[in-house]
């Protein structure tokens, strides 16, 4: 994988004015350590926030900039910050960075942590100042060993420079930051499951309300933000709201830039920082270079395995939440996957649903039993042993595991690609249904949603 800049052939150099997340990256791909980061204006935003801005002003600035969560849900960051209690007597609060990047086909946070660890630390430092949190944790995916090593070194560098610890920048504000390596479960990407895991409990999502802002880590107010989200904070504080908003393309309701990518059998798979509102066609053709010779684009997912499939005709959609929503799915993490003409959709969905079934926490019945059921049906269809009614049963499961039907968003994300695959490629599923004359009694009667 590569990381290039705005220009299709790397013709336009990254700059602080256009690439707030990636302009400091080294051409050799090595990490940017403290001395180099500060030489590239690093921690200037933190110094400004500590010296010139009231804590509430930092929150309002982030809110006015329109920053939204970059983990997939897209909740407004400033609004989330505003949910933290105002009561000054509550002196124990926590800031958690969700770095449990286990969404298949997503590696944007890994790049930031491995190559720009101080950008994340600065973003957390400013956020901690705004939220009055005295301790922070980076909850890191267990397999990200290089990121863990780089973040640990960067934290030690920041401590030695007086940028973490006691009396930061002479302000009287204390903030400790720890790198916590998780055990490797997809469900830890859900913020309350992450909190349970951090506390040493089983990684099950919690009932909400109460929300983490009221009752989070060890019962204290807690704010959880994604890596890329926090990495946007320094640029907003340094350069202002209007500049940040101006980065997005006309028509986009989301502000700033986004790390986007394309994988699959494309000529130039990679990751790029692009303005919200760029079309998927630009991302696919100009940056990813289109499909490799001998392959054609059959379908694509806009942002991880938990987003619905789209067709080539949908490539003109703008890459922001509302733009992708107009064509029937979610933007998710913004890292797209191309499905080529050699891929059987039943086999692809069987593989995906096996993953989601294995990663279910097992807490609620629809997810615990419904996802293995979908895998069993897909395996039979893949072998040509599907029974009449199996496709209807799968569609019934899509309905029963949809939004609002389960304890958290794991199952709705798991069945979204299944429903879209059947919608666009039903004939491939029908091809796996055995002839009626040779069929055995169905595994179960078709589910009818609402019956």
TrEMBL record:
SMART domains: NADH_4Fe-4S
Keywords, ordered alphabetically: 4Fe-4S, Flavoprotein, FMN, Iron, Iron-sulfur, Metal-binding, NAD, Oxidoreductase, Quinone, Translocase
Organism: Pseudomonas antarctica
E.C. number: 7.1.1.-
Family, similarity comment: Belongs to the complex I 51 kDa subunit family.
Gene (name only): nuoF
GO molecular-function terms, A-Z: 4 iron, 4 sulfur cluster binding; FMN binding; metal ion binding; NAD binding; NADH dehydrogenase (ubiquinone) activity; oxidoreductase activity; quinone binding
Pfam families the UniProt entry points to: Complex1_51K, NADH_4Fe-4S
Enzyme class (EC, first level): translocase
Coiled-coil portions: none
Cross-referenced Gene3D superfamilies: 3.10.20.600, 6.10.250.1450, NADH-ubiquinone oxidoreductase 51kDa subunit, NADH-ubiquinone oxidoreductase 51kDa subunit, iron-sulphur binding domain
Cofactor(s) required, per the database record: [4Fe-4S] cluster; FMN
Span of domain NADH-ubiquinone oxidoreductase 51kDa subunit iron-sulphur binding: 346-391
Signal peptide range: none
Keyword Membrane recorded: no
Subunit structure: Composed of 13 different subunits. Subunits NuoCD, E, F, and G constitute the peripheral sector of the complex.
Catalyzed reactions per annotation: a quinone + NADH + 5 H(+)(in) = a quinol + NAD(+) + 4 H(+)(out)
UniProt cross-references to InterPro entries, sorted A to Z: NADH-UbQ_OxRdtase_51kDa_CS, NADH-UbQ_OxRdtase_suF, Nuo51_FMN-bd, Nuo51_FMN-bd_sf, Nuop51_4Fe4S-bd, Nuop51_4Fe4S-bd_sf
Official protein name in the record: NADH-quinone oxidoreductase subunit F
Function: NDH-1 shuttles electrons from NADH, via FMN and iron-sulfur (Fe-S) centers, to quinones in the respiratory chain.
């Amino acid at each position: 994988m590569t990381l290039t800049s705005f220009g299709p052939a790397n013709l336009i150099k990254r700059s602080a004015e256009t690439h707030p997340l990636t302009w400091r990256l080294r051409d050799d791909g090595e990490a940017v350590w403290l001395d180099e980061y500060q030489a590239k204006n690093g921690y200037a935003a933190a110094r400004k926030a500590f010296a010139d801005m009231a804590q509430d002003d930092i929150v309002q600035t982030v809110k006015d900039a329109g920053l939204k969560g970059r983990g997939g849900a897209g909740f407004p960051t400033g609004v989330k910050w505003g949910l933290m209690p105002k009561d000054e007597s509550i002196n124990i609060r926590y800031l958690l960075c969700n770095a449990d990047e286990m969404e298949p086909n997503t590696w944007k946070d890994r790049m930031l942590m491995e190559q720009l660890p101080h950008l994340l630390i600065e973003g957390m430092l400013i956020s901690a100042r705004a939220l009055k949190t005295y301790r922070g944790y980076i909850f890191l995916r267990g397999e990200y060993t290089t990121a863990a090593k780089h973040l640990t070194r960067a934290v030690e560098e920041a401590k030695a420079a007086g940028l973490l610890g006691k009396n930061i920048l002479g302000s009287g504000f204390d903030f400790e930051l720890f790198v916590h390596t998780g055990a490797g479960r997809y469900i830890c990407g859900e913020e309350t499951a992450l909190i349970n895991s951090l506390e040493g409990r089983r990684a099950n999502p919690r009932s909400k309300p109460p929300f983490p802002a009221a009752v989070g880590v060890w019962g204290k107010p807690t704010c959880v933000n994604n890596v890329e989200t926090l990495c946007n904070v320094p640029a907003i504080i340094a350069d202002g709201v209007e500049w940040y908003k101006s980065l997005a393309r006309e028509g986009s309701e989301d502000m700033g830039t986004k790390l986007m990518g394309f994988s699959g059998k494309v000529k130039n798979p990679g990751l790029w920082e692009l303005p919200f509102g760029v079309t998927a066609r630009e991302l696919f053709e100009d940056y990813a270079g289109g499909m490799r010779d001998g392959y054609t684009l059959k379908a694509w997912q806009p942002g991880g395995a938990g987003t619905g499939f789209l067709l080539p005709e949908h490539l003109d959609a703008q890459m922001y939440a509302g733009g992708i929503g107009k064509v029937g799915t979610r933007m998710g993490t913004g890292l797209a996957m191309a499905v080529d003409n050699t891929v059987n959709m039943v086999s692809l969905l069987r593989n995906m649903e096996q993953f989601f079934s294995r990663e279910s926490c097992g807490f609620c019945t629809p997810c615990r039993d419904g996802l293995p059921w979908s895998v069993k049906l897909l395996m039979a269809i893949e072998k040509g042993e599907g029974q009449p009614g199996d496709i209807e049963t799968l569609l019934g499961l899509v309905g029963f595991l949809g939004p609002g039907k389960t304890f958290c968003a794991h199952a709705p994300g798991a069945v979204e690609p299944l429903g879209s695959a059947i919608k666009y490629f039903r004939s491939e599923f029908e091809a796996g249904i055995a002839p009626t004359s040779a069929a055995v009694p169905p595994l179960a009667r078709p589910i009818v949603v609402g019956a």
